[in-house]
Write a structure and sequence with these properties.
The chain is mainly alpha-helical and about 450 residues long. Helix content is about 70%, strand content about 0%. The protein contains 18 helices and two strands. A two-stranded antiparallel ribbon has the order 1-2. α6 (about 165-185) packs antiparallel against α8 (about 195-210) and α12 crosses α13 (about 335-340). The longest helix is centred in the first third of the chain and has 30 residues, at about 15-45. It is globular, with a radius of gyration of 22 Å. The termini are far apart.
């Protein structure tokens, strides 16, 4: 029998029933959450002991951020089933600042920039009108498109992997995808909603049998370890702060898109202005907290938005169990290290459908906006330039470094900016003679 509480924000359900759904969200985003820190630590030359501390802190911060989104503190948090994690959007700039000015300068910029984004969220009612439904729908569609290469690269084994595109990865990724698809199509209620979890488990078991899982990372993992505060002393440099703030604005646009996609795809409605502002404020203020723990900025995770849209599970308590699992993964490092053994091909097999569902949510939002000539121009021009130009990122070579950092490879930022500008400059009302012409023609 279908348990309707799974599909209600505030439905009550037993803890043991909620845990699988929370775990499903954790597994969908876990590797993506810690990967930015792993890459940054490697490039910046951070030692292994400090890197392990940062990975641990990232898991705890992601869990805390998710809980605040689910159960707001004042006007910080949207009360929506949004899962938070460390953002990839900042990675290239983080590496540049960390390698040229040091981790202390980067962390100082993260803290100040987060406060700026948080304040923007609190005062969103004064500027959110710049993001009407047609702009939000265009951004959501762009997010869906931008995630497709990520899912494909993961399916093939992960960018830079020695076995990228190997037969093993094709087998494991395809098997995982087929299991997810099978449960999504043929299973009933509870089991259908857990299709991604079943796909992950089945794919992981197959990967173990094929010798693709390396358990050596568990050998030196501590049983229990508390998060470390201020692993780096914050330093404040104006140039770094301004650069990070610029990327925070881009991250805010992605959060607007994720919030819109979640409401459209999982809740079947448009987001309220207060919800979008609260989502942004949570991004910002929790990112400042992340900085105190040596972590880079946090944001909503699009893959989990896709999971909610695909499964229909929006129960806040169920998602909160996932947040608690992330926190426990940080406090008990062995558990967190175990999750890192999931092969990229398994995650890619699950991601394909989830990322596609975000695009589908964008299409649905566009349909509700209507297919007027004005909307056609906004959507088609913003998407064609945003997606097209960033695929040929070398064409941005004539622009300053900060401009390239923000726009050259970030199609969501370009799409958002163009959609906002076009929405402001294009006339909002049809020509007066148009109805009369149609009448005469009839």
């Amino acid at each position: 029998m279908k348990n309707n509480t799974l599909y209600q924000l505030d439905g009550k359900m037993p803890l043991m029933q909620a845990i699988p759904f929370g775990l499903q969200h954790v597994l969908a985003m876990f590797v993506s959450n810690i990967t930015p820190i792993i890459i940054l630590a490697h490039v910046a030359g951070i030692n292994a002991e400090t890197s392990a501390i940062l990975i641990q802190n990232c898991m705890v911060i992601a869990g805390i951020g998710t809980l605040i989104q689910l159960y707001p503190i004042w006007r910080i948090g949207s009360r929506l089933p949004i899962v938070m994690g460390i953002s990839f959007t900042f990675l290239s700039l983080n590496i540049f600042i960390a390698t040229t000015q040091g981790m202390g300068v980067l962390i100082g910029a993260v803290i100040i920039g987060g406060l700026v984004e948080g304040l923007l969220g609190l005062f969103a009612k004064y500027w959110i009108k710049l993001v009407p439904h047609v702009v939000a729908a265009t951004v959501v569609t762009a997010i869906g498109f931008s995630l497709l290469p990520i899912g494909a690269n993961s399916f093939a084994g992960g960018v830079g992997a020695a076995d990228f595109g190997s037969l093993q990865n094709w087998i494991v990724g395809s098997f995982t995808l087929l299991v997810c698809l099978g449960f999504q199509v043929f299973a009933k209620s509870f089991f259908r909603s857990l299709s991604v979890l079943f796909g992950l488990i089945a794919g992981y078991i197959l990967a173990v049998c094929m010798g693709m899982v390396n358990f050596s990372v568990l050998e030196n993992a501590d049983l229990i370890s508390l998060p470390k505060l201020l692993p780096f002393k914050p330093e404040f440099e104006l140039g770094a702060v301004l650069s990070i703030i610029a990327i925070y604005l881009v991250s805010a646009t992605e959060t607007i898109g994720d919030t819109s996609a979640l409401c459209s795809g999982a809740l079947g409605r448009n987001p309220h202005k207060a919800e979008m502002g609260a989502s942004i404020s949570c991004d910002g203020f929790v990112s400042s907290i992340a900085g105190l723990f040596g972590c880079t900025p946090i944001t909503s995770f699009s893959q989990n938005v896709g999971l909610a849209a695909m499964s229909g599970v929006v129960n806040r308590f169920a998602i909160a169990t996932g947040a608690c699992i992330m926190i426990l993964g940080g406090v008990f490092p062995a558990f967190g290290m175990l999750l890192t053994t999931i092969p990229q091909a398994v995650l890619g097999g699950c991601s394909i459908m989830m990322f596609g569902s975000i695009m589908f949510a964008g299409f649905g939002m566009l349909a509700r906006c209507g297919f007027s000539n004005r909307n056609m121009i906004i959507v088609s021009l913003a998407l064609s330039i945003g997606l097209g130009f960033t695929q040929a990122s070398g064409m941005f070579v004539i622009f300053p470094q900060i401009f390239r950092t923000i726009f050259a490879e970030n199609c969501v930022a370009v799409v958002f900016l163009l959609a906002v500008v076009l929405n402001l400059i294009l006339p909002d009302k049809p020509q007066k003679q148009a109805p009369e012409i149609r009448k005469n023609e009839v």
